[in-house]
Amino acid sequence: MANTKELSVEEKLRAIYALQLIDSKIDEIRNVRGELPLEVEDLEDEVAGLSKRLDKLNDDLNNIDHQAKEKKNNIDDHKAAIKKYTEQQKNVRNNREFNSLSKEIEFQELEIQLAEKHIKEMKVTFENKKEIVNQTKDKLESKENHLKHKKAELSDIMAETEKDENFLIEKSNDFRGKIEARLLAAYDRIRNSVVNGLAVVSIERGASAGSFFTIPPQTQMEIAGRKKILTDEHSGRILVDSVLADEEREKMDKIFAKM
Questions:
Q1: In the list 11, 59, 112, 207, which could disulfide-bond 7, CB 3.0-4.6 Å?
Q2: Span 36-170: which CATH code?
Q3: What's the Rg (C-alpha) of the chain?
Q4: Are 50 and 140 in contact (CB under 8 A)?
Q5: Contact 12/226 with Cβ under 8 angstroms?
Q6: Residue 258 pLDDT
Q7: Exposed, middle or buried by CB within 10 Å (0-12, 13-18, 19+), for 61?
Q8: Residue 5: its pLDDT value, please?
Q9: What pairing do the DSSP bridges indicate for beta strands 200-204 and 207-208?
Q10: H-state helical runs in the chain
Q11: Poorest-confidence range of 103-112, 150-159, 207-216?
């Protein structure tokens, strides 16, 4: 980093504009991917959520089925008790014993009716849950297929662009190493505050690139003199003259051609 102090203003301007050209090229590559990485991430979250919901629904079905089987077993127990009490009635010694057994039989019959009612309710709930399970399965399958397609699409783009991006990131880091910390911090701050990521722009037709605000002739002369680092008072962007910009673009085009 010691050699950064030895750079002239012109060399600093060339380095910072070259860095801008490289970083803009990286932006282009990342824009090709667009929202795809976020789409994949969102789909992965949806698939995970649906899978969890499906597991919960299947647990509910298993619980309902288990409870229904218990009710059926209880019915068998109540029927066995009725059979036992009916047999006992044949051997009673008085009406009091007979009536007592009749009440037990009646109670067991009521328990059977209640259990059968619960089984019917469980059957309805089970069928409704089963329909929701099928719908969730279909939705999950659709989302999984969509995710598979999007992942393949992202993988193809990554395969095409990753090598170029890594090459450019390495070049970006090389140029960052040539620029003093304060100027680099200003560059990053401006770059992060604008939509198009342009922190350094050239003068075009008397205005900073992409701007309609004219730069005073005196300021244009100072920029062309390359003795001071000047910024656009409207956008805050660092300004370079068009000749320097053309020269650096030509150099960068040769570097980009190697990708």
A1: 11
A2: 1.10.287.1490
A3: 39
A4: yes
A5: no
A6: 83
A7: middle
A8: 54
A9: antiparallel
A10: 9-33, 36-89, 95-176, 181-193, 217-225, 242-256
A11: 207-216
Q: How far apart are CA 9 and CA 39, in angstroms?
A: 44
Question: Which tens digit of pLDDT belongs to each residue from 38-86?
Answer: 999 999 999 999 999 999 999 999 999 999 999 999 999 999 999 999 9
Burial zone of 22 (CB within 10 Å; 0-12 exposed, 13-18 middle, 19+ buried): buried
> How far apart, in whole angstroms, are the C-alpha atoms of residue 251 and residue 241?
16
User: What's the mean pLDDT in 162-175?
Assistant: 94
Q: Is 202 helix (H, G, I), strand (E, B) or coil?
A: strand
The dihedrals phi and psi of 258, each to the nearest 5 degrees, come to: -80, -10
The three-class DSSP label of residue 203 is strand
d(CA 36, CA 94): 86
> d(Cα 255, Cα 164) in Å, to the nearest integer?
11
Judge whether 17 and 170 are in contact, CB under 8 Å. no
Largest Cα separation within the chain, whole Å, is 128
Q: Which ranges in the chain are annotated with CATH 1.10.287.1490?
A: 36-170
Q: Which two tokens stand for residue 78?
A: 């109540």
- Pairing mode, if any, of strands 200-204 and 238-240? parallel
Spell out the residues 6+ positions from residue 95 whose beta carbon is closer than 8 angstroms to its own: none
